[in-house]
Amino acid sequence: MSKRVSIEWFISVAMCLLAVQKLQDIESFSTMFLNYDLLAQRWVRYGYLYPFGEALAGVLKISGAMIWLSVPVALFIGSVGAFSVFKAVYIDKRGLKCACVGGDSNVPLGFISLTENLMMVAMGLWMLISKP
Predict the structure, then answer these.
(1) Burial (CB count within 10 angstroms: exposed 0-12, middle 13-18, buried 19+), residue 118
(2) Separation of first and last alpha carbons in the chain
(3) What is the pLDDT of residues 1-34, one digit of tens each?
(4) What is the pTM of this model?
(5) What angle do CA 62, 15, 102 make, to 5 degrees?
(6) Is residue 98 within 8 Å of residue 110, measured between CB atoms?
(7) Do 24 and 53 contact (CB within 8 A), yes or no?
(8) What are the residues facing 97 on neighbouring strands?
C-alpha cells in the first residue's frame, strides 16, 4: 500500500471513529458543540447532523463511492469547524472542552480539534483534485 493511500485510509477511518464517538451520546456532543461551532449556534440542528455528515464522508471515502457527495460534505463541515475552532481558541481565547471525541471528553478545544477539521478539508480537497 502506498504512502498516499495509507494517509487517505487513516483520515477516513479516523473520521468514522470520531463520528462513532460523537454518536454514542449525541445529546451531550451537540450541547458541547454548541459552545463553539458558529453554524450550530445559529442553527442548533446542525449539532445533531454534524456527526452523521462526518461518518458519511468517511465511509464514502473508504468505499470510493459517491465522491460528488462526500467531497462537499467533508469540505463544508471541515471548513466551518476549522473556522469555528480557530475563532473560539485563537481569536476569542476561550477555554472550552472539545466535543471532538463525544460529549464526555476532557480534551481542551484547540490543536486537536483544529487538526481534525483541517484534515477533513484536506481530504475533501484531495478527493476533488485526485478524482476525475
Answers:
(1) middle
(2) 21
(3) 676 677 888 888 988 998 998 898 899 889 888 9
(4) 0.86
(5) 150
(6) yes
(7) no
(8) 108
